[in-house]
Amino acid sequence: MSTRTFPQIMVLVGLCLALTSSGCISPSAGPSLPIPFPVSPFRQDQEEDQFWEQERYERVPILGALTEGGPAKALDPPSDDQVMRALDKVRPVEGGWPFLWQRQRNDVKITKEKIADYIDPPRVYPLIGPAQQHHAHYKCCVYFEEVTRNGWPIPYTTRDNSVEVIYIDHNHLHMVGNVENCDCIAY
């Protein structure tokens, strides 16, 4: 071995030891400092929408017991946001290419009508206990003007007055008050 390469190898080994023991880079666990990486706006919007729907609409609330002779009304009707999100799943508008092709919804009007409101008999739900499921079904009509702009090869705009019907189910649970006198079905 040449006397010139020995000091170079020792410097290289010392540098590797210094880097791995300083906490900046660890060969077993990777970098200890978080390294940011870019996220596309589409992916970020998709994650935010998924979290919003999970937080607002995909959880089943558990309410107190129904009082005898009291009103057994359902929760609030679906919000306009929930209706528009359900409409976007059926007939999406997002996307398009500016100045090439775009679609918009204008003059949106929403009507909500309760179709059914009923309560199931008590039963035992795992992790909840004896409860009754309250069903509420809504028919939501969305009236809007759909504007489609095509910019190539010949620019033109089409306007279409449309109606979409969306059915939304609101289900929630009511705890059963008197468990001793309850003929609950265990599933």
Low-confidence stretches: none
Beta strand %: 35-45%
Q: Return Rg in Å.
A: 30 Å
Per DSSP E runs of 2 or more residues, the count of β-strands stands at: 8
Q: Into which percent range does the helicity of residues fall?
A: 10-25%
Shape: flat
Number of helices: 3
**Largest sheet report:** 6 strands, mixed
Give, in order, the helices and strands: HEEHEHEEEEE
Describe the structure.
This protein is an alpha/beta fold and 187 residues long. The protein has a domain of 127 residues. 24% of the residues lie in helices and 39% in strands. It is built from three helices and eight strands, in the order αββαβαβββββ. Strands 3, 4, 5, 6, 7 and 8 form a six-stranded mixed β-sheet that branches. A two-stranded antiparallel sheet has the order 1-2. A hairpin with a 3-residue loop joins β1 and β2. It starts with a helix and ends with a strand. The model has no long low-confidence stretch (mean pLDDT 83).
Observed structural traits:
six-stranded mixed β-sheet, 39% strand, alpha/beta, flat, 187 residues, two-stranded antiparallel ribbon, 3 helices
